């Protein structure tokens, strides 16, 4: 299977992030604290259902949510707005050659 694309919303560093991968080679380059490890962690979470080597159910934590999304949510609650709580969305698109594309989401 070939990793084609990933979409991440509200997971750690990423408020909204989309990336299409090259079919033959993709290289992640960036300064410290720019989300490289979070990107790899989100792919692992989506494909295995695990965080830190354990089932995600046992690793759920408020620290998994993007800080700005949480701040916006709390601000709206304090203003008296009735808003749904933040959510995390991770979608991974795979190309299962020669079959149909595969879509996995958390």
Question: Overview of this structure, please?
Answer:
The protein is α+β, with helices and mostly antiparallel strands and 106 residues long. The protein has one domain (2-105): Rossmann fold (3-Layer(aba) Sandwich), CATH 3.40.50. The protein has 3 helices and 6 strands; from the N terminus they run E-E-H-E-E-H-H-E-E. It has helices spanning 36-48, 56-59, 67-78, and strands at 2-11, 14-20, 50-51, 54-55, 89-95, 101-105. It has a 4-stranded antiparallel β-sheet with strand order 2-1-5-6. A hairpin with a 5-residue loop joins strand 5 and strand 6 (101-105).
Key attributes of the depicted protein:
alpha+beta, 106 residues, four-stranded antiparallel beta sheet, Rossmann fold, elongated
Order of helices and strands: EEHEEHHEE
> Uncertain runs with pLDDT below 50, 5 residues or more?
none
| CATH topology category name | Rossmann fold
What is the CATH H-level superfamily?
Answer: P-loop containing nucleotide triphosphate hydrolases
Proportion of residues in helical segments: 25-40%
**Major beta sheet, specifics?**
4 strands, antiparallel
Give the overall form: elongated
Number of strands: 6
Termini separation: 19 Å
Strand content: 25-35%
CATH class: Alpha Beta
Quickly count the helices: 3
Number of domains: 1
CATH architecture verdict: 3-Layer(aba) Sandwich
Give the radius of gyration: 16 Å
Mean pLDDT: 89
Secondary-structure class? alpha+beta
The spatial strand order of the largest sheet comes to: 2-1-5-6
């Amino acid at each position: 299977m070939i990793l084609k694309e990933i979409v991440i919303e509200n997971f750690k560093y990423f408020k909204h992030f989309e990336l299409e991968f090259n079919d033959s080679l993709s290289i992640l380059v960036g300064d410290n604290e720019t989300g490289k490890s979070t990107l790899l962690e989100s792919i692992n979470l989506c494909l295995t259902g695990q965080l830190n080597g354990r089932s995600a159910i046992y690793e759920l934590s408020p620290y998994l949510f993007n800080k700005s999304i949480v701040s916006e949510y709390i601000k709206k609650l304090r203003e008296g707005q009735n808003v749904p709580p933040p959510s995390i969305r991770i979608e991974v698109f795979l190309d299962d050659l020669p079959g149909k594309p595969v879509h996995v989401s958390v």
